[in-house]
Amino acid sequence: MTSSFSLKRKLLCACLLLLAATGAALLAQTRPQARRVVYLSYEDAKPFLEAGADILPQGLKGKSQPELARDWPNWVVRRDAEIRARLLKGDEDTLVNFLLFGTSYTKQPRITQQQLNQIGQQQPNAAGTINNPALAGLANSLQARADDLLRAMAAPGSNDRLLFARRLLAEQKGFRLDTPEGRAKAKAYLLESVVHVLGEFSNYAKILETARAQGASEEFIERSNIFRTRGLSSDTTLLPNYAIEEALKAILARKLLAPGTVRRVAIIGPGLDFTDKQEGYDFYPQQSIQPFALIDSLLRLGLTTRADALQVTTFDLSPRVNDHLERARERAQRGQGYVLQLPYDTQARWKPEAVRYWEQFGDRIGSPMQAIAAPSAISTVKMRSLQVRPAIAALITPLDTNIVLQRLDIPAAERFDLIIATNILVYYDTFEQSLALANIERMLRPGGFLLSNNALVELPFSRMHSVDYSTVVYSERAGDGDHIVWYQRAAD
Length: 492
Hints:
Helices cover 47% and strands 16% of the residues. Strands 7-3-2-9-10-12-11 form a seven-stranded mixed β-sheet, sandwiched between helices. It has a three-stranded antiparallel β-sheet with strand order 4-6-5. It has a two-stranded antiparallel ribbon with strand order 1-8. The radius of gyration is 25 Å and the shape is globular. By secondary structure, it is α/β, with parallel strands linked by helices. It has 14 helices and twelve strands. The longest helix has 37 residues, at 65-101. It has helices at 4-30, 42-51, 65-101, 113-122, 133-154, 160-172, 180-212, 216-223, 239-253, 290-301, 319-333, 352-360, 390-393, 430-443, and strands at 36-39, 264-268, 311-316, 338-345, 366-369, 381-388, 396-400, 406-409, 416-421, 444-452, 464-473, 481-489.
């Protein structure tokens, strides 16, 4: 016979289980659906495969539709791996920037862009030797920099850039940095890499010069995928974010977006400031700028009225970038802010508007703090430092995604209002850009915008079409600026 106490206890347990089940059901109803990254399906890619038969890559070219349907799943997996393999070449290019511009590991003077152009015209050999006596000093400085960098890598301490360089040379390239012979081979590799990069950029300059002769539009089109065979670099810089803010300002003035309507945003290739694209600096910790710059601009322009209602997703295939942002997010959830260092080289001759952007940057997301002083070797650099509020850093969710072949699988109600892609689609050819645009289309709400500094092919069946563009000039230097194209998604 069951006691009264035992019966009551069973009834209580049953009630608690019922309440728990009911609570779980209610929570499941209110919780957003799981965010998962999926490959572009054959059905979604089919119109692009049919329309772009003449630009299909090897592995797809010349196949019938049944064959394409059969082979597509395996092809996207293989192609994803091939694209991700380009990260190593991008890391090698980053190491070249570190060698040329770094100040943390050497007392040798930085090698300027003008000097690089001079060296490039002379075509130094793999040993760094230049026959022109006027430039021989630069070659000697380059070799001394390589020696200093290798010495610093031998005892990197907690310097994340030196640790990165050491891993790249020792673990990925297989150089023995603990032996004289291994260091000599590593030095030769560094100098050969400089020669290779200079050769690449000399070739790019010739291609753009030829396109420029045919008109500004032809140059922009050529520039839009000029790095299609180059390594995938994550290096970044501040000023493209100024161009994005100006584009958003113009879109708002045209009433193409209404105040307070931007709640979900995504950034493709947020970047990591290792040694940035414009004679980069390495005297402050690595940082990612664009996610914070976009939040700052949205709040300043009133496109977002409440930061706590904003969702920010970043898409990148670089483990270094994703790990950096994930760690920043975890620290923010523990109450730690994110520090941004903002250099401005006064010799770069920025336009007054660009200087004003630099001066006000971050006033909606953080507060000024004591900046790291620039080394005496670059005394013309002014510094600002910003402490980003933890609540802002916690808004950012990084996802490992190859935008050419993958997208976030989300319901229509959770699609993005705005997606940013600057200095990233330039690394892909026309076919790959078309696939990326298909993935972006699937993630944008009708009326939402993609802002990119690339000219992308607009196919008739696509719902993505350019409605206008804005041009921002950064400085007095020739060609220093960006065209930001406004691509808008049409209704289904």
